[in-house]
Every structure is written in structure tokens, then in C-alpha cells.
Design a protein that fits this description.
- The complex is a heterodimer.
- Chain A is globular and about 70 Å long.
- In chain A, 75% of the residues lie in helices and 1% in strands.
- By secondary structure, chain A is mainly α.
- In chain A, a hairpin with a 4-residue loop joins β1 and β2.
- In chain A, α11 runs antiparallel to α14.
- By secondary structure, chain B is mainly alpha-helical.
- Chain B is built from twelve helices and no strands.
- Classes of the chains: A mainly alpha, B mainly alpha.
- Chains A and B meet through α2, α4, α5, α6 and α7 of A and α1, α4, α5, α6 and α7 of B.
Chain lengths: 287, 279
């Protein structure tokens, strides 16, 4: 008895029990429920248990589906490229050009603070900037760059991508900065002594060593953008769609089985993307 | 020291622009929330006034924002406390490398990457099929934990991977029980990181939208209330509300960061008795 009680496997599971309970009830069970309901049928007022492939059949034969999935990937890839570029540059500046550690921490915090504030409000904040009578248009008009206000600044794909970059770049900065801080500075000196140009140091030394940070940041950005529905709805003024919006529209119409079927396909897509990226990096080792 | 290279100034300018991009919109609505009584949602300012802040305190003008604020505040504190406790326990558990921990680890990662709307939809379906009414303090609370716990655990992993086990061994050698080791040795050492976990727990809950959308029941949390306002409020009152909540978040973040700093100062003052002890 004593031996069993002292077993690290048992104490491990006991300590992890609250975590397991929360994830079982609020993650595993709900996902299983979505899978089950995706085979159900919907009437006008309720959903009925069934084994009906109709939801999937509709999903895979509707021409909307392909457009919407394509749009989702497009948003994800463009946002990924921009956040990676900005995140890498910002991290580079913080890691290699800031000499005092206090300044480094302060500037990294400066980048992180907005992450702890409301995303909805940060989206609303773009309205007075991008609107037809917004600051951007007023500035362009007064500079004589344009004759009439630009309509595509707000409620457009441009606005959607801008908001995605605005909200998610922090997810690139922190992991990449973390990787860069761990790089032994003598490696950079050695590369310089061996005659490497700054560009070569970046491509041959820093980027390979930052791969884990880049991967973790990419996983965050790709999954957040692929699973989003609210940024697209708000920033496109309901003019563009991604998979998340397809699901939320179905939910609004109480078409839960159809929403569930779309959710299952979205989930599989996201998990495939993540599984692919996890093959390139061992997260557990990198923490 | 080497002189600053030209690339330093280019990168510093880039960084400055990024920070402007990050904070510019927030500052813009901060200014516009002082818009005059006749002013609209965009510049120019037609005078300045506190009118829009005043309207926030008039129930009929903006609906139940104070009720939703107190719900969000309560929920945030509930999520914060739970996240800290469960993450520490989880962190200690994973250190034991128990059988099946790898599966649990991937479940935690899955919680991070699963689209938020799926959690909302799934929890909503589970509750409705079980005949339980959704409520922000039950279904909403659990749904938010699926997002805050993974963050808490990631912090704990980072902490325990750098944790020097010699301290625990020393305590054990002096006869401390496992419980005493945790309370008197481990927790004080990881305390600053726990404040970080608490900060994540509170702010992620306080600002959560998607996971509470279908799980909060009949009463809205603040982000849901604010989102509702975007469709039917066309005055700067929404900027005033945005400015106030953002200020509130800044205060919360400030308090947490200050706590970390004070803890560090206290530790520096009292923690190390090297050179002052007996021979």
C-alpha cells in the first residue's frame, strides 16, 4: 500500500487531477459532442439525434465552402508572413541592439501590454483611424495624395489583415525573442571573425537557432487566425467570410448540426497544420 | 563600447513605428472619448467634454454595462485563482514524468490550438443536451479555463525546467515533509512567476469574447456587452467605455508588475545572508 502511495505515477495523476477534470469536461467532452451532433438533423426549433451524413455532404458540395476555406488560408498565410517579418525584426532589435537588460525587459513589456487588454476594443480603435472620414483619409487628402476618401481602408480585407497583425504580432515576438536571447553571443563573434556579413550571420547562424521560437510563434498565429470569426466579422463589416464566420452564422440560425460539421472539418484542418509544424520542433524541450 | 551602427538607428526607427502602430489606435480613441457633445465618431473634435463618460453612468443610455463589468471582474478573479492553483499542481505533476504525462501534455497543447468558437459551441451543446442552463459562473468559467490553464502551464514548464532541485533536496535532508518542501521552499521560489500566471489568468478571462459567447447564459460579460454596443451605439460613448476598460487593464497590469518588482526587492534584501552569518 505504502509503495503504491509513494509511486510518482499516482502522485503525478493526483496532482494533475484538477487539470484533467477541467479539460475532460470543457474540452474533450465538448469536442466529442460536436462530432456527434455533426451527424444530427436540425428542425426549425430543435436538433434531433440521427446518423445523417447530409451536413457533410452539403459542406463538401457547396461552392461556398471552398471559397471560405481558401479565404481562411489566405488570411492565415498573409498574417503569418507579416507577423513573422515584424516579429523577427523587433526581436532582433531587442535582442542584439539593446545593451541594458532593464531597457530590454521594459521594451519587451511595452510590446506585451496590449496583449493583456481587450481585443474587441483594440479592433474598435481602428474605426476613427481608417473610416471614410478617419485620420488616414484626412491625412492623405490634405497631403494631396488622393482626391477622394479611400473606401477600402475600413470594412475590407485590408482592415482584416491589419487587425490580425495588430493583435497577433506579440505571439511571434515573445517566442522568437526568447530563442534569440539564448543564442551564445560568441557564436556571432566567431561568424564575424570568419568573415560573415551581417546578412550571412542572420541566415546562417541566427535563423537556424531561432527555429523553435519561429515555430511556436507560427503555431500561435496560424491557429488563432484560422479559428477566428470575430475579427473578420468586425473588420470586414460582414463583407468577407472565413470558416469561423460560417460556423458562427450557422449558430446564429440555430443550425447546430451544420455548424458542428463545419467545426469538425476546421478542427481537423487546424490539427493537421499543427501536427505538421510539431514535427519540426520539440516543444517540450524548448520551454 | 562600440559606437552604434547605422543598422541600430534603422531598427530603432522600425521599433518606434511598431510601437506607434500598437498604441496609436488606443490613443486615438482615448482622445476621441473626450469628444464634445455634438461630436461624432471621428475627428475633428467639436470641443471637448466629459459627456460620454457621464453617459456611461446613466443606465438607460448604455444598458447594463456596470452589471456586466462586475460579472467580468468576479469571473476574472475566479479564473485567476483557479488558474494559479491548478497550474502549480499541474506543473508539479509534470515534473514527476508520470505514465501518460505525454498524452496530457498534448491535450494541453490541443487546448491552445483548438479554435475558440469550438469550445463555445461544444460547451453550449453539452449543457443544453444535459438540460443544464448555461451561466457565466459555470459553463463560462470552465470554457475560459481551457484557454488560461495552458498559458499557466506553459509558464510553469518554463519555471520548473530552470528550477534548481538542490533547494528541495536540502530541505528534505533537514527533515521537511513533501508538503513542507512545497509550501516553504518551492512556492516562495516560484512566487514571481505565479504573479505572472495570475496576470494571464485574470486578463485573458476579463477580455475573453469567443469562449463566453455561447456559454455565458442570459447575462453578458463586459466584452460581450461591448460587442453588442458596436452594432447599435453610434456615439463616442463606446470610446469612453473602451478608454475606461483599457485604463482599468493598465492599472491591473501595473499592480501585478509592481508586485513582481516588490517581491524581487524583498528577496534581494532578505533572501541572501551570505557573508552576514556565523562562521
Amino acid at each position: 500500500m505504502q509503495r503504491i502511495l509513494n509511486s510518482r505515477h499516482l502522485t503525478g495523476w493526483l496532482l494533475a487531477a484538477p487539470l484533467v477534470v477541467v479539460l475532460a469536461i470543457f474540452l474533450v467532452l465538448p469536442v466529442l459532442m460536436i462530432v456527434v451532433v455533426s451527424f444530427w438533423q436540425a428542425t426549425e426549433f430543435s436538433i434531433v439525434p440521427a446518423f445523417d451524413l447530409g451536413n457533410y455532404e452539403f459542406l463538401f458540395t457547396s461552392h461556398v465552402t471552398l471559397d471560405v476555406f481558401w479565404n481562411t488560408f489566405r488570411y492565415a498565410l498573409i498574417t503569418w508572413a507579416l507577423t513573422l517579418g515584424i516579429g523577427f525584426t523587433v526581436s532582433w532589435f531587442l535582442a542584439f541592439h539593446i545593451r541594458s537588460q532593464t531597457t530590454q525587459v521594459a521594451l519587451a513589456l511595452l510590446c506585451t501590454v496590449p496583449f493583456w487588454t481587450s481585443n474587441i476594443i483594440r479592433m474598435i480603435s481602428w474605426v476613427p483611424f481608417l473610416g471614410r472620414n478617419g485620420l488616414a483619409n484626412q491625412a492623405f487628402l490634405s497631403m494631396g495624395l488622393i482626391d477622394a476618401p479611400l473606401d477600402w481602408l475600413l470594412f475590407s480585407d485590408f482592415a482584416v489583415i491589419l487587425a490580425f497583425v495588430h493583435l497577433n504580432t506579440v505571439f511571434m515576438i515573445i517566442p522568437i525573442l526568447n530563442s534569440m536571447m539564448r543564442i551564445d553571443r560568441s557564436l556571432l563573434e566567431a561568424a564575424r571573425d570568419a568573415g560573415a556579413s551581417p546578412f550571412q550571420i542572420m541566415t546562417n547562424v541566427v535563423i537556424p537557432l531561432c527555429k523553435p521560437g519561429i515555430m511556436i510563434g507560427s503555431i500561435f498565429v496560424l491557429t488563432l487566425v484560422m479559428g477566428d470569426f470575430i475579427t473578420v466579422r468586425f473588420m470586414s463589416g460582414s463583407q468577407s467570410a472565413n470558416v469561423g464566420r460560417l460556423i458562427s452564422n450557422d449558430i446564429g440560425l440555430l443550425q447546430y448540426p451544420s455548424a458542428s460539421a463545419t467545426s469538425v472539418v476546421l478542427l481537423l484542418t487546424v490539427l493537421l497544420v499543427v501536427a505538421g509544424m510539431l514535427r519540426l520542433v520539440d516543444i517540450r524541450k524548448e520551454l | 563600447m562600440e559606437p552604434r551602427s547605422r543598422s541600430f538607428y534603422a531598427l530603432a526607427a522600425f521599433f518606434g513605428l511598431y510601437v506607434l502602430f500598437l498604441y496609436g489606435p488606443t490613443i486615438t480613441i482615448g482622445i476621441l472619448s473626450f469628444q464634445g457633445v455634438d461630436g461624432g465618431l471621428t475627428f475633428p473634435m467639436r470641443g471637448t467634454s466629459l459627456n460620454w463618460f457621464r453617459e456611461l453612468f446613466m443606465q438607460q443610455a448604455v444598458g447594463d454595462i456596470w452589471g456586466s463589468f462586475f460579472r467580468s471582474l468576479t469571473l476574472g478573479i475566479m479564473v485567476m485563482v483557479t488558474t494559479v492553483v491548478v497550474s502549480v499542481m499541474g506543473g508539479l505533476a509534470f515534473r514527476k514524468r508520470f505514465k501518460g504525462s505525454a498524452v496530457l501534455f498534448y491535450l494541453v497543447i490541443a487546448a491552445l490550438v483548438i479554435p475558440s468558437i469550438l469550445v463555445s459551441l461544444g460547451v453550449g451543446l453539452v449543457f443544453s443536451q444535459a438540460g443544464i442552463r448555461t451561466h457565466w459562473a459555470t459553463s463560462g468559467f470552465g470554457s475560459q479555463l481551457t484557454w488560461t490553464l495552458p498559458f499557466g502551464l506553459l509558464v510553469m514548464f518554463a519555471v520548473f525546467n530552470r528550477f534548481n532541485r538542490a533547494y528541495e533536496e536540502a530541505a528534505r535532508d533537514q527533515g521537511a515533509t513533501p508538503w513542507q518542501v512545497v509550501i516553504h521552499v518551492v512556492v516562495p521560489i516560484i512566487a514571481p512567476s505565479l504573479i505572472g500566471v495570475a496576470l494571464f489568468g485574470f486578463t485573458l478571462s476579463y477580455d475573453e469574447f469567443a469562449r463566453t459567447l455561447l456559454t455565458s447564459g442570459s447575462r453578458n460579460t463586459l466584452p460581450l456587452e461591448i460587442y453588442g454596443m458596436t452594432t447599435n451605439v453610434t456615439t463616442p460613448v463606446i470610446y469612453a467605455l473602451g478608454t475606461l476598460t483599457t485604463l482599468f487593464s493598465f492599472v491591473v497590469i501595473g499592480v501585478f508588475l509592481l508586485a513582481v518588482k516588490l517581491l524581487g526587492a524583498r528577496r534581494a534584501a532578505k533572501g541572501n545572508d551570505a557573508g552576514s552569518g556565523l562562521v
